[in-house]
Amino acid sequence: MRRGNPGQAIIAGFIGVILAGTLLLGLPWSRTGPVSPLDALFTSTSAVCVTGLIVRDTATLYTPLGKAVIATLIQLGGLSYMTFTTVFLFLFGKKGSLMVRRTMAASYPDLSLGKLRSFVGKMLLTTFAMELAGTLALLPSFASRYGFVAGLGHASFTAISAFCNAGLSTFSTNLAEWRGNTPVNLVVLSLIVLGGLGFIVLDDLYLRFIGHRRRKLSLHSLLVVFVTGCLILGGFIILAPAEWNGAMAGFTVKEKILAGIFMAITPRTAGFNTVSYSAVGSFSLFLTMALMFIGGSPGGTAGGIKTTTLATVALRLVATMRGKEEVSALSYRLPRDALVRSFAVLVLAIATLATGFAFMALAESHGMAHRSWAPYLFELFSAFGTVGLSMGSTHVPNTSLSADLSAFGKSIIIITMLIGRIGVLSIFASLVRPEREAIRHVEGKLEVG
Q1: Residue 181: helix, strand or coil by DSSP?
Q2: Are 357 and 409 in contact (CB under 8 A)?
Q3: In Å, how far from its chain's centre is CA 5?
Q4: 84 vs 92: CA distance, rounded Å
């Protein structure tokens, strides 16, 4: 393991946790009825990859033990299993093997190996504090309807799922029945945004505004906060009017405003929903797919290509059009390595989705002939962005479109969720052996565009 590839270790770890979750969800004590191994694998993958797509109704199929297993898988997937591995090594008095520290550094490349120990501690403290606060804030609403014990179960599961950007719910209709409840909406949305910002940004914001260290925010934090704010505000301004008399028809004004905010935030990347996406118009579906593709921010619980990738690519394009060599933003110069990685992520993400949809069209040609290709493309974007939004099954109530897919189609979604959670660059880098450039070639002339 000492000479192993950190990317391969991350992939192996995620697969190991998914398989363990599959076995646990298949136990008779975890479910109220039969479940196929493929459906158990799908549910486990969706939980570990903090996606939220479901092929069976979580609320009715799984017992309290099964739901506890799912919540644990969400927690492991949201923080990544490497975080817990590192913690256990530290608790036993070890500084962690070189392999573990290298793998954590691969997950958080902006941190030095020496700072990983304190950072992991802050991650755990932040996560559990946020989830506890969310549970206590949600408890009154849920307990008033279901009683204290059941309400506590709903509140804790929802808080974990929201902060980890999972979108899995203990309610059959997700959060649709709570669309007019202001506390539930605001708590869930706040947890989603905080989890999607990433732990690096949360730590930076804490030190800047609460920890009394009057230091300037890093370029990473500034870009994340700026892009996140623009996407949320822009999404609300466009989506709320677009669906005001569409998917939100019959809602009260307050419900429409809350649902509009929900539609702007949940695609980034927690698939809770208060509106039915089967009733959403084509324009809103397209914009939602764009938001799912972008996703959240690095170093957190979200998926997608990430906000910093979007910002870096956009800034590079603007600088190119202006004839500038240097790319700068907010009084900072962007590093060349970040520019190269951003374009690599964008190209690999597009290639992944294109390949996945090609196989999906092959596997689900019959379904596409009856329902069109749009719901299947939406499902694929949702899987890649680890979102969980879906236009829904036509055969199985309260489930995602994935419930209608063949075994091959479900396998495509499973693989896409895994790629989306780990990251396209990490996945493909683990498959390629790095080589040192022994020869530097003469630069040639090339016209592009």
Answers
A1: coil
A2: no
A3: 24
A4: 12
How many other CB atoms sit within 10 Å of the CB of residue 265? 24
Q: Which residue has the higher pLDDT, 146 or 118?
A: 146
Tell me phi and psi for residue 447, to 5 degrees: -100, 135
pLDDT given at position 434 = 64
Residue 420: which of 379, 390, 391 has the closest Cα?
Answer: 379
Q: Write the burial class of residue 319 (CB in 10 Å: 0-12 exposed, 13-18 middle, 19+ buried).
A: middle
As a whole number of angstroms, the distance between CA 239 and CA 201 comes to: 27
String of DSSP letters for 373-385: SHHHHHHHHHHHT
Residue spans of the domains in the chain: they are 6-431
Length of the chain: 449
Whole-number Å distance between alpha carbons of 307 and 312? 9
Instruction: Give which of 62, 72, 88 is closest to 131, Cα–Cα.
Output: 72
pLDDT value at position 393?
A: 94
As to burial, measured by CB atoms within 10 angstroms (0-12 exposed, 13-18 middle, 19+ buried), residue 103 is: buried
Q: How far is the C-alpha of 353 from the C-alpha of 298, rounded, in Å?
A: 20
Q: What is the 3-state secondary structure (H, E, C) of 66-88?
A: HHHHHHHHHHHHHHCHHHHHHHH
Cα–Cα dist 244/259, whole Å:
9
Angle between helices 182-197 and 116-146 (to 10 degrees): 170
Over residues 85-94, the pLDDT tens digits come to: 555 555 555 5
What mean pLDDT comes out for the span 381-406? 94
Q: What would the two tokens of residue 192 be? A: 């989603």
Query: Is the overall model pTM greater than 0.85, yes or no?
Result: yes
User: Per-residue pLDDT tens for 252-261?
Assistant: 999 999 999 9
- From residue 332, alpha-carbon distances to 223, 314, 329, 432 in Å are 11, 15, 5, 32
271 touches 389 (CB < 8 A): yes
Nearest of 413, 401, 398, 348 to residue 374 by alpha carbon: 401
Confidence class for position 427, pLDDT limits 50, 70, 90: confident
